[in-house]
């Protein structure tokens, strides 16, 4: 492990006691997303692990899985590229997972994980204890600079005991799948506010020329749009937690698009207003910029916008 992974793991562990956030749709969804945003404003890599942990708690509650024990640190490892493939086999003594799972945030930090795996032709979700000696991070599979501390490399499973959570396909078919997707956007927003803080501090110290002030105004407008979008979405989720109206996917894709665009505006305007100085003098600022740049790529860019456009073309209610 690197020193940065050690640092983020220690910070994530120290935060566990404050990660008892309201569940999505509980009537306090705005509080949930605000908690994630506040943590991301301080440290995006720690927030990435925290978001995975609280998402796992929500998934287990929604799908009637085993309740996490106090002090355990959970991840949600659900990336499904064509290769490699993690397989699940049902044996007389229970399910076993074998293979390699890529993109596992908190590969060294997590004690447990919710993992998607292939059981024949079906995709299923499993809860796995990572302390059985049958799993190991694959070293060298996360050589990233941005989000280095998120430790999102591959993990190898060797007949690891696991418990099936929900029916086949339940992980993506449940209403909370789309509620959770907005939790990621709340982290993006929080990371952008941490970057914007540097420009605001410069302006309030009297070190902003008219051009920098114009950039600050643009940053404020972008973050205002993102914040209000998240607030409105939280209220909609609380009003229809089971997504009876069927708006969950459209809402999540729309919110993520708005927040992603706002974050990109913040990166552009703060960069142009401050120049290279903060990158060279302020390690925390430089890390925030690198981390947010990488974290935003959890979006699929134009593919996600095309998916939103398809929903609208197929009859989903437009936002105007």
Please outline the helices and strands.
Elements: H1 3-15, H2 29-42, H3 44-62, E1 74-77, E2 87-91, E3 94-101, E4 112-119, E5 122-129, E6 135-137, E7 155-164, H4 170-173, H5 176-204, H6 210-239, H7 248-274, H8 277-281, H9 283-295, H10 302-313
Parallel strand pairs: 1-4
Antiparallel strand pairs: 2-3, 3-7, 4-5, 5-7, 6-7
From the structure above, extract its key features.
7 strands; Butyryl-CoA Dehydrogenase, subunit A, domain 2; 320 residues; seven-stranded mixed β-sheet; 10 helices; Butyryl-CoA Dehydrogenase, subunit A, domain 3; 2 domains; alpha+beta; 52% helix
Give the total of beta strands.
7
Report the end-to-end length measured between terminal Cα atoms: 49 Å
**Proportion of beta-strand residues:** 5-15%
Query: If classified by CATH, what would the architecture of the largest domain be?
Result: Up-down Bundle
CATH topology-level fold name of the largest domain: Butyryl-CoA Dehydrogenase, subunit A, domain 3
Average pLDDT reading: 97
- What is the domain tally? 2
Which structural category fits the helices and strands?
alpha+beta
- What sequence of helices (H) and strands (E) makes up the elements? HHHEEEEEEEHHHHHHH
Cα-based radius of gyration, to the nearest Å: 20 Å
Largest sheet: 7 strands, mixed
Assembly type of the shown chains? Answer: single chain
> At the first level of CATH, what is the class of the largest domain?
Mainly Alpha
Helix coverage percent: 40-55%
Low-confidence stretches: none
Q: Judging from the principal axes of the Cα atoms, what is the shape?
A: globular
Number of helical segments with 4 or more residues? 10
């Amino acid at each position: 492990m690197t020193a940065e992974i050690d640092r983020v793991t220690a910070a994530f562990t120290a935060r566990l006691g404050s990660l008892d956030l309201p569940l999505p749709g509980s009537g306090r969804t705005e509080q949930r997303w605000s908690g994630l945003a506040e943590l991301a404003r301080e440290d995006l890599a720690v927030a990435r692990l925290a978001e995975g942990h609280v998402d796992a708690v929500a998934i287990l509650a929604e799908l009637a899985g085993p309740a996490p024990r106090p002090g355990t640190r959970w991840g949600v490892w659900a990336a499904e590229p064509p290769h490699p493939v993690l397989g699940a086999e049902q044996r007389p003594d229970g399910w076993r997972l074998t293979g390699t799972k890529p993109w596992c945030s908190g590969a060294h930090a997590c004690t447990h994980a919710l993992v998607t795996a292939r059981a024949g032709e079906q995709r299923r979700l499993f809860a796995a204890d990572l302390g059985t000696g049958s799993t190991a991070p694959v070293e060298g599979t996360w050589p990233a600079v941005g989000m280095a501390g998120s430790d999102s490399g591959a993990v190898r499973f060797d007949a690891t005991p696991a418990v099936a959570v929900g029916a086949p396909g339940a992980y993506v078919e449940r209403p909370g799948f789309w509620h959770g997707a907005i939790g990621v956007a709340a982290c993006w927003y929080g990371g952008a506010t941490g970057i914007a803080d540097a420009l605001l501090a410069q302006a309030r110290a009297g070190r902003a020329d008219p051009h920098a002030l114009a950039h600050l105004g643009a940053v404020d407008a972008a973050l205002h749009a993102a914040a209000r979008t998240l607030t409105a979405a939280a209220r909609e989720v609380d009003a229809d937690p089971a997504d009876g109206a069927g708006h969950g996917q459209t809402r999540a894709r729309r919110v993520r698009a708005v927040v992603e665009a706002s974050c990109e505006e913040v990166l552009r305007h703060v960069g142009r207003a401050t120049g290279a100085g903060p990158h060279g003098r302020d390690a925390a600022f430089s890390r925030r910029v690198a981390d947010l740049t990488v974290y935003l790529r959890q979006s699929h860019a134009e593919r996600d916008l095309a998916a939103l456009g398809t929903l609208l073309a197929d009859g989903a209610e437009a936002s105007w």
